[in-house]
Amino acid sequence: MNKRKRRCKTFVNTPFSPPPPLRFGSLELSGNLVLAPMAGYTSLPFRMALHEIGGLSLGTSDLVNARSLIEKNPNAFKLIRSGPQDRPLAIQLFGAVPEEMRDAALVLESRGVDVVDVNMGCPVPKVCKVGGGAAMMAHPARAFAVVKAMADALRIPLTCKIRLGIDSLIAPDFARALADLGVKAIAVHGRTKQQGFDGEVDLDGIRKVVKAVPQIPVIGNGDITTPLEARKMLEETGCAGVMAGRGAFYNPWIFRDIRHYFATGEILPEASFDERFKFMARHLDLLIETFGEKHGCPMFRKMAPLYVKRLGPAAEFKRKIFHLQTRAQFDEITAHYRQWREEILGRKNSGLN
Ligand SMILES: Cc1cc2nc3c(=O)[nH]c(=O)nc-3n(C[C@H](O)[C@H](O)[C@H](O)COP(=O)(O)O)c2cc1C
Asked: Could you report the per-residue pLDDT of 91-108, keeping only the tens digit for each?
């Protein structure tokens, strides 16, 4: 009997019909599951590794400074690297000058990107200082001028990622204005800027955005880490798609699992230790292929602790991976960790601890 058959199956059979695959502008996606943009994490190797697992309908890049892109800054071009296995792809821009945002969007369009997204939710000072990110929602007139310049110039779909507001709910009216200007889909993180990442996601706030823009799809975002949470987001808000970010660190199979659940009602078991480490090795290999060993290994250091979060005792692994410099070291650290973990768990099970 193979491994998958041996694991028990869980079905959640209460009737549920997921919405049809997302369609906006000229784009028809294969489903409704979108990767949230996460600066420093959602680079090409991570997106490729997720696409290899399956289930992801649209990947999103790290955020890119529009001005850097039109000034041909090599770092900005590194951020927009893509390839055939990385499709469809949305690249997220930030900035507050309409002409710069338009021209940067046109650069992306000319390079075959599928969607241009505007960051209107990022609270970090570096982004807000230049009037981008969440500062856009604090200055709607400026935001709308940026969006108008971009929407008028682009043939590919323009989307925006917003929060519920700065310190209160303004997203429904804000979204209505964006849709009237030609934005083709809106992703909403169900918190205000003031909340940051604290507190519960306000599903009622997202539902009000959905109601405000019946003509375009709304993609609900915030704290989705399981298929049932994805279902709850869709059912309680009426949104057309879900976007997951941090959930993909803790469980890179999240998109495959949600898609499988939507299709069959079956909750797949969590990935095993071996599957997790195989995925990590693949992500590290892709980082090294893309950025070289010298840069790829340090980039992996911050991801690795998140991947092992659900594995139980991992202190030994985290301590060592923090100094990762080569691919060969990863195999050594993994082998040690496996042994250390077996000892710890063995001692616990035998009551010696
Ligand atoms: C490390 C990190 C980086 C992020 N970077 C961006 C970003 O570049 N652009 C953006 O719109 N949101 C960014 N976000 C917010 C996420 O896209 C998402 O809205 C938020 O994490 C809530 O979704 P989640 O609970 O599924 O992670 C970032 C979040 C994290 C944790």
From this structure: 999 999 999 999 999 999
